[in-house]
């Protein structure tokens, strides 16, 4: 920002493009003033003034005069004077940074009221009203400007209202006067000073308190989590007070231009009669709906609806609005583009596009893969605000119900006995990982979205809420307490909503995701569909029309392939052949490796693989199906050495002599053990040792595909070779595969061509891509292994150890196994794409690692020019959406 940026601007001077200087609130107040909405007059002290204050530790010297000038203008416009005994001007002092930020100083209302000017306020709205304002001022000034803890005031109030407190609307003039006396006493006791009786001093000290609150510990913690720069500073808005607390014809409210929870196109809001400021949202009194306002104040209501419409058209988005009615007259006090639930995001974007308010491309950009992902998780059928215990950060989505436990060991023990548990901790650390894994959900009192609990829970797919500030956990006593006084005992049922960050008491009903159900179902019953389902379908449709990237699925069995196809997959980009050998079928590998029963074991493997491939090709008829040759290290299929050794020892102890066949098995298994299996005998290297094992899958694929052709179908099988480091390896593998294809067919005629490609998952493969391309019809980037081998970080061990520490301490901003590391791994991808394509212009290019389904990585894959991403079936819609957004 230029150094001569203004320190102060009146609302009439700014506009919404100036949020950096005026803060979000100030910029929108200026915009509404320009638009002619009924905004009380006022001015904004800019973020520039705040930055100056923060760097010099005192109010900029030019500011007091600027404030004086602005106040004079305000007094002229309002016809009232600050401190006037007959008709005083009161103002609100409101913080407002570029990004809305909890932890910053709150608003102080009714600033400027003094003993001397109180009679003037009585004249304006009566005695009860005036003393209510005074009570609020002393309380807010004491709490936010002087930093006195709320409990001191609550205690003082008890002397007047009794220990249970009382509905504020029932307080009479005598009560209010007594409260003012009590609260001023608190100020004197705690600070030695009374409420300043100079209105300007009240104002100046409030402004300085807002500046200083920029560096409050809570604000700093929040900024660090959200990656908001620490030196932006906040603006301060000073505006003339309007009063919602003058009686039954006044009130204050908040509303949205549409329903922010469902997206329904109808204004939604709450109104509270005879109330000021935050009364309407703090839940101390029952509010009425916006519809009821039409009966109470028909004129103000009609006017409000008109403004909502104007604002929505102006901002071309959902807006939220704070308003006040003073004796039937409407005032608008704030607006901004409103926060919305994931479901509402889809409904709003779709319907606004239908209405022509925004383009379909804009609609697509207003939703994202994370929102779709959360819509595809199970949700609570109905959340009940009355059961809400506490609220924190939505660290890992989902809806989970379980019994509260406070120790990870208890979680493990109870989970083993089949009990669903929710682990409640102050925070978690590396020793708690077993407990997290055993739990349906994790709730922590501290920590942000990158805390240990959040990172581990996301990695394991556990529901998680972190940073529940109102919760105090006593794990020794196995209880927790909320700041409202509710307690959680071990065994109490909790319902945890990882999508909203809410924790409820008791067991709420969980219902499967409507969106996932609808997208997977065969018949889209269009007219009976929920709005959110319609919106998701429509935006996905637009994404499909826009996207350049094809979306394929990783699927190993026919059921997954069918599901993926229903979800929109355009083929299979990765079938892991090892899945045809796991589970009960593992004995076949044992027979092959350990028992020298090769011929019959191979025949059985081939029979089973042929069945699997037939199912896959049938499910994906006319679409590509990429079969990857056997990849994992052999030991994954063999019995564990320890178990076998124990068995050998047991038999020996029992019979007095060793069982020779058992000892032989142990010897063979031992001989296949590797210290570093992920860098050892696996992938294409298996061909050098067990070529027959690899041939099995080629033969099965050829026979399955040729048979389907004879049935009149259109299978499109492809083969890919894993873990290749060198072109010579690939050439040998390809020769073997092609010979095997030819031999399998024998004299049988087949016009079906089977392309052979290579996985790029070693840095050397990426670097020698030009040479590899000579022998490959396509590249498929295996970004899991490529990340592992580029970073030298085990993808299987990193999650629970130092990687978590890196993420929680901020050494790493993102887990490279979750979000593609564009700087390092991404560079290798780009190098391979460039070198591969220049050697072979028609080279196919895709990615089949976990990153293929990660919303933030997809735009990278689009940018570097891949042809497709291939991800797990449930992520197919997310990838379609993100691929569409990347193309807009
Ligand atoms: P927040 O950023 O927490 O929303 P605000 O600055 O919007 O805080 O103020 C809190 C409440 O005070 C809001 O309900 C707002 O409408 C009310 N308020 C702020 N300024 C005025 C004013 N000049 N007259 C009446 N009410 C006001
Ligand atoms: Mg507000
Ligand atoms: Mg791999």
TrEMBL record:
Keyword Transferase in annotation: yes
Which positions fall inside the PEP-utilising enzyme C-terminal domain? 543-884
Q: Under which name does UniProt file this protein?
A: Pyruvate, phosphate dikinase
| NCBIfam families for this protein | PRK05878.1, pyru_phos_dikin
Q: Which family does it belong to?
A: Belongs to the PEP-utilizing enzyme family.
Q: Its catalytic activity?
A: pyruvate + phosphate + ATP = phosphoenolpyruvate + AMP + diphosphate + H(+)
Q: Which cofactor does it need?
A: Mg(2+)
Q: Which residues form the Pyruvate phosphate dikinase AMP/ATP-binding domain?
A: 21-59, 62-285
- Documented EC number(s): 2.7.9.1
The residue ranges of the PEP-utilising enzyme mobile domain are: 421-501
Q: Which UniProt keywords apply?
A: ATP-binding, Kinase, Magnesium, Metal-binding, Nucleotide-binding, Pyruvate, Transferase
Signal peptide (residue range): none
**What InterPro entries does the record tag this protein with?**
ATP_grasp_subdomain_1 (IPR013815), PEP-util_enz_mobile_dom (IPR008279), PEP_util_C (IPR000121), Phosphohistidine_dom_sf (IPR036637), PPDK_AMP/ATP-bd (IPR002192), Pyruvate_phosphate_dikinase (IPR010121), Pyrv/PenolPyrv_kinase-like_dom (IPR015813), Pyrv_kinase-like_dom_sf (IPR040442)
For this protein, the record's Pfam families field holds: PEP-utilizers, PEP-utilizers_C, PPDK_N
The answer to whether UniProt assigns keyword Repeat to this entry is no
Recall the GO molecular function terms of this protein's record: pyruvate, phosphate dikinase activity
The record ties this protein, via SUPFAM superfamilies, to:
Glutathione synthetase ATP-binding domain-like (SSF56059), Phosphoenolpyruvate/pyruvate domain (SSF51621), Phosphohistidine domain (SSF52009)
């Amino acid at each position: 920002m230029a150094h001569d940026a203004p320190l102060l601007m009146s609302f009439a001077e700014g506009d919404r493009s100036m949020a950096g200087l005026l803060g979000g609130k100030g910029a929108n107040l200026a915009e509404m003033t320009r638009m002619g909405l009924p905004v009380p007059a006022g001015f904004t002290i800019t973020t520039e003034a705040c930055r100056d204050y923060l760097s010099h530790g005192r109010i900029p010297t030019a500011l007091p005069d600027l404030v004086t000038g602005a106040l004079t203008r305000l007094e002229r416009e309002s016809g009232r004077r600050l401190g006037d005994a007959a008709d005083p001007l009161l103002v609100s002092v409101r913080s407002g940074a570029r990004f809305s930020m909890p932890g910053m100083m709150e608003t102080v209302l009714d600033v400027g009221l003094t003993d001397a000017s109180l009679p003037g306020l009585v004249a304006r709205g009566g005695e009860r009203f005036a003393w209510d304002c005074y009570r609020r001022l002393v309380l807010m000034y004491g709490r936010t400007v002087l930093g006195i803890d709320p409990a001191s005031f609550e205690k003082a109030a008890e002397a007047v209202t009794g220990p249970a407190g009382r509905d504020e609307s029932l307080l009479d003039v005598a009560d209010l006067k007594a409260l003012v006396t009590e609260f001023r006493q608190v100020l004197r006791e705690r600070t030695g000073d009374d409420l300043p009786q100079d209105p300007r001093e009240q104002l100046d000290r409030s402004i300085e308190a807002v500046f200083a609150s920029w560096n409050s510990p809570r604000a700093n913690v929040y900024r660090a989590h959200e990656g908001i720069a620490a030196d932006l500073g906040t603006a301060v808005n000073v505006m003339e007070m309007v009063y919602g607390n003058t009686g039954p014809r006044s009130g204050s409210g908040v509303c949205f231009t549409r329903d922010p929870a469902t997206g329904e196109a109808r204004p939604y809001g709450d109104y509270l009669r005879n109330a000021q400021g935050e009364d309407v949202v703090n839940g101390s009194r029952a509010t009425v709906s916006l519809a009821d306002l039409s009966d109470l104040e028909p004129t103000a209501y009609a006017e409000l609806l008109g403004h909502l419409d104007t604002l929505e058209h102006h901002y071309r988005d959902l807006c939220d609005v704070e308003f006040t009615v003073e004796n039937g007259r409407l005032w608008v006090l704030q607006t901004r583009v409103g926060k919305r639930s994931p479901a509402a995001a889809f409904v709003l974007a779709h319907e606004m596009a239908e209405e022509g308010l925004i383009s379909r491309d804009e609609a697509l950009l207003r939703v994202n893969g994370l929102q779709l992902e959360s819509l595809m998780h199970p949700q609570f059928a109905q959340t009940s605000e009355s059961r809400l215990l506490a609220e924190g950060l939505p660290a890992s989505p989902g809806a989970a119900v379980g019994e509260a436990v406070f120790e990870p060991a208890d979680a493990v023990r109870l989970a083993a006995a089949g009990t669903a548990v929710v682990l409640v901790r102050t925070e978690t650390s590396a020793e708690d990982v077993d407990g997290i894994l055993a739990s349906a959900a994790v709730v922590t009192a501290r920590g942000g979205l990158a805390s240990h609990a959040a990172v581990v829970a996301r990695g394991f797919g556990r529901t998680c809420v972190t940073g529940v500030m109102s919760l105090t956990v006593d794990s020794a006593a196995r209880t927790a307490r909320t700041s409202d006084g509710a307690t959680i005992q071990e065994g109490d049922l909790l319902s945890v909503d990882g999508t909203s960050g809410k924790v409820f008491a008791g067991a709420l009903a969980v219902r499967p995701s409507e969106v996932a159900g609808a997208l997977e179902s065969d018949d889209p019953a269009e007219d009976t569909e929920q709005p959110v389902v319609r919106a998701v379908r429509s935006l996905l449709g637009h994404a499909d029309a826009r996207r350049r990237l094809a979306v394929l699925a990783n699927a190993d069995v026919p059921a997954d392939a069918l599901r993926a196809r229903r979800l929109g997959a355009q083929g299979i980009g990765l079938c892991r052949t090892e899945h045809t050998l796991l589970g009960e079928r593992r004995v076949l590998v044992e027979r092959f490796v350990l028992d020298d029963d090769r011929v019959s074991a191979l025949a059985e493997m081939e029979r089973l693989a042929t069945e699997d491939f037939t199912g896959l090709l049938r499910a994906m008829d006319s679409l590509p199906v990429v079969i990857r040759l056997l990849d994992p290290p052999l030991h994954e299929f063999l019995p564990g050495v320890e178990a076998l050794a124990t068995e050998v020892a047991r038999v020996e102890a029992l019979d007095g002599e060793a069982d020779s066949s058992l000892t032989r098995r142990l010897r063979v298994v031992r001989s296949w053990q590797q210290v570093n299996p992920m860098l050892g005998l696996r992938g294409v290297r298996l061909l050098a040792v067990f070529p027959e094992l690899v041939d099995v899958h080629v033969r099965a694929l050829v026979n399955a595909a040729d048979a389907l052709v004879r049935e009149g179908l259109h299978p499109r099988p492809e083969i890919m070779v894993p873990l290749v480091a060198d072109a010579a390896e690939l050439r040998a593998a390809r020769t073997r595969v092609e010979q095997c294809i030819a031999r399998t067919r024998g004299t049988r005629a087949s016009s079906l061509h089977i392309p052979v490609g290579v996985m790029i998952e070693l840095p050397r493969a990426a670097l020698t891509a030009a040479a590899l391309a000579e022998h490959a019809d396509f590249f498929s980037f295996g970004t899991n292994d490529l990340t592992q081998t580029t970073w030298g970080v085990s993808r299987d061990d990193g999650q629970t150890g130092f990687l978590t520490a890196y993420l929680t301490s901020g050494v790493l901003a993102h887990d490279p196994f979750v979000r593609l590391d564009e700087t390092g791994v991404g560079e290798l991808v780009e190098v391979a794409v460039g070198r591969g394509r220049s050697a072979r212009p028609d080279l196919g290019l895709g990615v089949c690692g976990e990153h293929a389904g990660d919303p933030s990585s997809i735009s990278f894959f689009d940018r570097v020019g891949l042809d497709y991403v291939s991800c797990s079936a449930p992520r197919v819609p997310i990838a379609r959406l993100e691929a569409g957004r990347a193309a807009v």
